[in-house]
Write a structure and sequence with these properties.
mainly alpha; 2 domains; Cytochrome Bc1 Complex, Chain D, domain 2; 14 helices; binds heme C; two-stranded antiparallel ribbon; single chain; globular; iron
């Protein structure tokens, strides 16, 4: 081992730059059709080793108190990193939460995280699931102690970060590096808007896209399909759970029942839908917008226009909208081996 290392050093000695750059910086994919990136890459530039470490952490059950619940347990790649088939995510001891796990994708482009925007810094987000007693039920300091005792983690932290010790800061930075690299931007829709090969729409998809721009894009804005705002889209409060959403964070009743407008990327495969996963299909979501919207003090004014609640949608329009939403599925991302557990 030592001999190999010396040989390695020796062979690079006339090209020092190459030796220093052994932990290569990675290129973050910034798609031309996306809004501006929000994550400060200069404060935590993703590197090969940092990404590798972040990925190992994302899939490691030791981040939870019982050793089994990893981030990947609730965020599965095949379903755009949502918790497939679960209305509410369950974590340790099968305890159930009250919210549906959103997709983890394009996080670098997002301003605020969680349905109520509990934090605006991606690096700090993992504290929430780790310390939540129904998710991972652990403390960050316990997690970091466990990692410190592990030789492989020690090695990975040393390789990934300059000073190299296993600490909270690098733990969070590594997880962010993994998530920052998770960019989904290769759906048929993306190819369509960028004029690339494979980006042809059928007539129905084209019609659905027009309808979407007229009826949905005021909230599901830009090629991320969110305006980053918190809004009340008229869901009646869920029986037995009084989740007040954004008001939980701001303490203002003006924010009651407002939730983050979700990105609709990969939406065809991320059922169930809404912050509480109450709808099992896109058809039920559209039926809701058509006939289920409930009035309240904080209902978004956009859903109270033309003397009617909600959004008028004929059966034909619903079909076309669903066809359009299907074009947002990005097989490249869903099958990208860089993000896969195995
Ligand atoms: C028990 C299931 C569960 C586990 C384990 C879990 N999450 Fe989540 N995740 C959720 C749920 C539910 C939400 C929505 C939380 C909310 O809105 O309050 C969420 C939200 C997120 C978001 C915000 C997405 C957005 O669009 O705002 C990110 C990022 C995320 N999780 C990353 C992680 C990471 C990293 C880990 C591991 C440290 C992790 N999650 C562990 C269920 C889980
Ligand atoms: C007034 C703003 C607004 C308009 C207009 C709007 N939405 Fe939404 N949409 C939201 C909000 C806010 C949520 C999240 C609500 C929640 O979970 O409480 C949401 C959630 C969704 C979801 C669930 C996504 C998920 O990951 O769970 C889908 C699908 C959806 N909207 C599609 C549409 C379509 C299609 C249209 C047009 C017919 C539309 N929306 C119009 C604000 C809006």
């Amino acid at each position: 081992m030592l001999i190999l290392l010396i040989l390695g050093l020796y062979s690079c000695s006339d090209d020092e730059a190459e030796y220093i750059s052994i932990n290569r910086e990675l290129d973050v994919n910034i798609p031309s059709n996306f809004p501006q990136i929000q994550y400060d890459l200069s404060a935590n530039p993703p590197t090969e080793k940092g990404f590798e470490l972040g990925k190992k952490l994302f899939y490691d059950g030791r981040l939870s108190s019982n050793g089994f619940i990893s981030c990947g347990f609730c965020h599965e790649q095949r379903f755009a990193f949502t918790h497939h088939g679960h209305q509410f995510s369950h974590g340790i001891d099968d305890l159930e939460g009250t919210r549906n796990a959103p997709a983890v994708q394009n996080m670098a482009f997002q301003k605020e995280f969680a349905w109520d925007g509990a934090t605006s810094h991606l690096d700090l987000f993992p504290i929430i699931p780790i310390t939540n007693e129904v998710e991972m039920g652990e403390t960050v300091s316990n997690v970091v102690s466990k990692l410190r005792e592990d030789d492989e983690y020690q090695k990975l932290f040393t390789e990934a970060f300059d000073e190299g010790e296993v600490n909270n800061e690098y733990f969070f930075k590594a997880l962010s590096q993994f998530m920052v690299m998770m960019v989904s931007s290769n759906s048929t829709y993306d190819k369509y808007v960028r004029g690339e090969e494979g980006g042809e729409f059928t007539e129905t998809e084209e019609y659905g896209y027009e309808l979407f721009q007229q009826k949905c894009a005021s909230c599901h804005t830009s090629d991320l399909f969110t305006d980053d705002a918190f809004r009340n889209n008229g869901l009646p409060p869920y029986p037995g759970i009084n989740d007040i959403g954004r008001a939980e964070v701001t303490g203002s009743t003006a924010d009651n029942y407002k939730f983050k407008v979700p990105s609709l990327r990969n939406v065809a495969i991320t059922a169930p839908y809404m912050h509480d996963g109450r709808f099992g299909s896109l058809a039920s979501v559209l039926n809701f917008y058509d006939t289920g919207v409930q009035d309240s003090e904080t209902l978004d004014p956009i859903l109270k226009q033309n003397n009617r609640l909600g959004i008028d949608l004929s059966e034909e329009e619903k079909q076309a909208l669903i066809a359009f939403l299907n074009t947002l599925t990005d097989e490249t991302f869903l099958n990208d081996e860089r993000f896969a557990e195995y």
